[in-house]
Design a protein that fits this description.
Elements (H helix, E strand, L loop, with lengths): L2 E5 L2 E4 L4 E8 L6 E8 L6 E6 L9 E3 L7 E6 L4 E6 L8 E9 L12 E2 L3 E6 L1
Parallel strand pairs: 2-11
Antiparallel strand pairs: 1-3, 3-8, 4-5, 4-9, 5-6, 7-8, 9-10, 9-11
């Protein structure tokens, strides 16, 4: 079992930045694909970013088009933590953000692929 706890959400003005953290426990997450999803008010959960399991060549990252160039996903193996650095935030980024983990080899763009989820952290961007 993997337990995930998100933190770092809050209220920020448009153009500002936040860094979300996802602390994992129970197992080391270096062999897991880690994803960030978000759920805007009244909408379905949507993919934001993912980072592949660590391999000899490092990790690959993936983003939804609307956050490319603004968001960066990264992991710290020593801390068993994944981060989402969010810059140039826009009101449309307002959502509950969730961290998730899945085994390598699954489609990391699909919410059903993930086995473990955190409780979420709210991000609100004011205009």
């Amino acid at each position: 079992q993997v337990q995930l706890v998100e933190s770092g959400g809050g209220l920020v003005q448009a153009g500002g930045s936040l860094r979300l953290s996802c602390a994992a426990s129970g197992r080391t997450i270096s062999s897991y694909v880690m994803g960030w999803y978000r759920q805007p008010p009244g909408k379905e959960r949507e993919f934001v970013a993912a980072i592949s399991a660590i391999s000899w060549s490092g990790s690959s990252t993936y983003y939804r088009d609307s956050v490319k160039g603004r968001f960066t996903i990264s992991r710290d193996s020593a801390k068993n933590t994944v981060y989402l650095q969010m810059n140039s935030l826009k009101p449309e980024d307002t959502a509950a953000y969730y961290c998730a983990a899945t085994r390598a080899g699954r489609n990391h763009y699909v919410v059903e692929s993930y086995d473990y989820w955190g409780q979420g952290t709210q991000v609100t961007v004011s205009s």
